[in-house]
Write a structure and sequence with these properties.
3 copies of one chain form a homotrimer. The first copy, chain A, is α+β, with helices and mostly antiparallel strands. Chain A has helices spanning 36-39, 41-52, 174-177, 182-188, 207-214, 220-223, 225-230, 233-241, 338-363, 380-393; strands at 18-19, 22-23, 30-31, 57-61, 70-76, 79-87, 90-95, 110-112, 116-117, 124-125, 131-133, 152-158, 161-165, 193-203, 247-249, 287-291, 296-300, 304-314, 317-327, 372-373. Chain A has a 7-stranded antiparallel β-sheet with strand order 4-13-12-7-6-5-8, with no helix packed on it. In chain A, strands 14-19-18-17-16-15 form a 6-stranded antiparallel β-sheet, covered by helices on one side. A 3-stranded antiparallel β-sheet of chain A has the order 9-10-11, with no helix packed on it. In chain A, a hairpin with a 2-residue loop joins β12 and β13. The longest helix of chain A has 26 residues, at 338-363.
């Protein structure tokens, strides 16, 4: 008979640098947030107001609304919005909610319309959101049409990329925030792209677990063999360490001889914009920009563009979306094959989805306390979490 | 490069006539309830006590319990009840819960029993709910059998239609509330019906969104083409406007030449009750009655009866049930075909399920604020919501 | 026209002996807990801390970790733990959570490892839980490895059976609590078993409904015909009445001529341990022990062992696990057939799963009030609930 009673090692509860909204300075390491931030529904509810509604979030590209009346649906943290080309000069976004009794105006993911007409009682709105007709109730008879326009969502078009923000007070213009990359974006002409692929994963994890995963390349060597074939890992460590602000810029650093992020390092589409005019794509060309904490990330390579965005669903579920773009003049079959354009990140997304699920499984444990993160490889994490806490504490 | 920052139009927060339980009079339009009433689980919990438990709710027809010992199960807001014919003269309802350790007494949806016997420890109860036998514990040995009868649920049989109410204090008798239609019900002899069809939809919407949808025909022209073939829409607007009380009566008004609600306007079964004695069914014959806010609605046509009832499941889910009846002497194949009897409302239910889902999708949006409803077409909605708020505020 | 209004019998709200944590003495019967204890998520949350974390819970057998580095996963109330043989002399348990950013260390249900290595960033731990390597961060560079061992879970090996406890302060040793059965366990040599079957049911019921069901044999005659073929029911009533402490011992009493719990009363494997040395298995041989309120129950027969354990999932869901063992020297096909070993309890589990579901359906009813339980057949229930309330009230 063997009978052994083990004494439990007292659980070490390290105080973390980021605790309950207080940024601490008496620890010799950075860390992630306490468990509650990843599992508490009340915190998630507060995040809707303080974070998801206050940031610019990537929702699409101007190529999706080329003609007047073109629209597409997207959502920000569960809020359905309609992005529509109101005129040659203006793209607008509205809550997809009729002002009468709330029915969704549009149910198709995209289309072209002359008016936005509710299928319930056929109230119709102009492309500018103004109420134009209420069957059975003339303007002024029971109420003034002017009082009931669609509720607008803030929208900014930045070099062809469309960002939306739910709050009445949107943050500063992206033109200002991303001035550092404007010249590059003008070179590659990101207004002239077309979407050639889209992929989304519904992951059973808190959205911040995905954020943390995305912000460090410490896990890349062991888990992303395909990505590491083209990416210069040591340079990527330095790159992520530079992401110390909610608005950051920077490219995917490439290994020597690699021209783009692809399976073999060779271009997967024709060069973008003015790069076509050069004899050769410049060695290591790339640019990009991103926003945290609710991540929108635009990666621009010589021949294609990748955009990542997160869509929180509830405290323990998040949709991870990736979209691929090539130049609008590229021809499928001749200049590119969509599967090739998407190959590296498609493999990487699948790996990340599993890692984030595994990480969240542990973070959910009641025994979880945050550990030390490596300031030379994971420093973008505490930086983004600081930005997160500042938003959460804002009035 | 095109870069446009839109200013958000300040969101109009119209104060509504029905706000947080206060009925306002300083608005020139009626409206529905604020968003919380449709999404807040605490309000749903309160509704169980204040609304679902206090009303009469349709649960079935006397034809389901023709013989002594016949029983069927139903539920009111998740509470399983057994409706059983206790004697030739009396139909009773009990909670389907053994007094010992709570096991459900009956699991089959219907049947015929001499006693109600729990399958767990075989405690048995008479059809009157009295505890008759406890294996291993004689009456008085450990406790008195008299102290442990089944818990009764209030029940009223009104012209053959069975209604139940969970509360100890049931509301006034339906005989009193619906005296206006008693003569008609005696004519068509609604005690002598048989059920020929039943259909239920589980809809992801708050039950009040279904209520509001049912109480107005503003949406019918655009969404219910089949129903509108037989129904006189303008008269229906007037009809719903008359539903200003929690107990209302009224029929489906028919278009000229239409004899019943059916695909071709012709009868789909033999005339009911004393209508058979007439040479011809009276032009536009019809009657009916209903209860709100938790809707039970009985529609009586010359040849068949339709009953609608709601079964709230949780704050965002509700079961919508429809049952069809013909005269008990009608013969399948000769006098009626069940599919024909159900055809119009079967199509209409499907349309309504989609509309209610779409409306709830928008009402759930955090941007939702209630809009103006049309007093000439939707006035039954604020009337029902007033009745709802009165129940919610009652002691 | 028949119209009857029934008066509701006033609902009897018997005060129970166990109400809201107070044990009452002014009732002439015992009973179960008020409804809230079975449906309230806050109470379930408190149970995690006060009950599930403080008891010894059965997690497996030493045969699962025969060699150094052998491990298996299990969980206690949703907490994933790794049970691993650290050395020839010691079996340990750890939270399956990396100290870095929480990723689960192991995902396979069992295996053999030299180190516990996190698949996220490849932090690796020894079998004793000590942090051995952090890629890119030498010991002491950013933090001391010594500060970040895996979090230990208390573990006791009792005659080959492995029990775990999440709390820092484990309860008293099982050697002490179960000294009454030590001699019998040495006779049958329960260290030398092998698992030949495992079955689990996810039941939509509160875990205490399963507990109550397990603690009485009042329901056996009507519901467990197979079990009653070998079990002496009257003796079982007396047996369960003796279970008045959180730690109880006792066997399944057998009917005359029955040698073990099996379909025909005959042995289903070779006799265990030293019983093999006897000419014949002693008439009515059996022993066992159990722990409540979160049930772990070990049943030892002459030829096989059955273990039951509960895994609460949420307030309304629980996993019921049964494992079957025979002697480690028994040969499949010759000495036993796994299906025969499992036959009786496999049938009984299925019956119990349905009963517990049915009982919980009624306990969930808002009309439910606890009824009288029979002190001569169900007295182990109030005893276990007293133990439960004492844990819930402990500091």
């Amino acid at each position: 008979m063997s009978s052994t009673v083990q004494a439990a090692v007292p659980v070490q509860v390290h105080r973390t640098r980021l605790v309950s909204g207080v940024i601490r300075s008496d620890l010799n390491y950075s860390t992630i947030l306490p468990r509650d931030y990843y599992v508490d529904e009340k915190i998630f509810e507060k995040e809707f107001e303080k974070v998801f509604s206050t940031q610019w979030t990537y929702v699409g590209h101007v190529s999706q609304v080329a003609r007047v009346g073109d629209y597409f649906l997207d959502n920000i943290a569960g809020e359905s919005i309609v992005v529509v080309r109101e005129s040659a000069d203006r793209i607008s976004a509205f809550h997809n909610v009729c002002r009468h009794r709330g029915h969704h105006l549009c149910s198709s993911e995209s289309g072209n319309v002359r008016r936005l007409t509710c299928p319930y009682h056929f109230w119709s709105y102009g492309l500018d959101g103004n109420l134009l007709n209420v069957p059975g109730s003339k303007d002024g008879a029971n109420f003034d049409y002017n009082d009931w326009p669609l509720k607008r969502v803030n929208l900014e078009v930045f070099h062809g990329f469309i960002f939306a923000c739910l709050s009445e007070q949107p943050p500063a213009s992206l033109v200002e925030k991303f001035s550092a990359v404007s010249a590059d974006l003008e070179t590659v002409k990101t207004e002239s792209l077309k979407e050639v692929g889209r992929e989304s994963y519904e992951i059973h994890a808190n959205w911040k677990t995905l954020l943390e995963n995305y912000l460090e390349c410490y896990h890349c060597q062991g888990s992303h063999p395909t990505l590491c074939q083209s990416m210069d890992l040591q340079a990527m460590f330095r790159g992520t360490d530079e992401w110390q602000e909610p608005y950051f810029t920077g490219k995917v650093p490439l290994r020597p001889g690699v021209k783009t992020v692809s399976m073999d390092g060779q271009l997967v589409s024709k060069p973008l914009g003015d790069l076509q005019k050069l004899d050769e794509v410049p060695e290591g060309f790339g640019t990009g920009f991103g926003i945290v904490p609710l991540l929108s990330r635009v990666l621009i390579h010589a021949d294609h563009v990748v955009v990542h965005a997160m869509r929180p669903l509830d405290v323990g579920r998040v949709k991870w979306e990736t979209r691929w773009y090539v130049g609008s003049d590229a021809v499928e079959g001749t200049d590119y094959r969509a599967a090739n354009v998407a190959a590296v990140w498609s493999a990487t997304n699948k790996e990340d989805a599993a890692l984030c699920q595994g990480a969240y499984n542990g973070v959910r444990s009641r025994s979880f306390t945050p550990g030390p993160v490596d300031d030379s490889r994971e420093s973008a994490i505490p930086a983004a979490l600081r930005a997160y806490l500042e938003l959460m504490q804002a009035d």
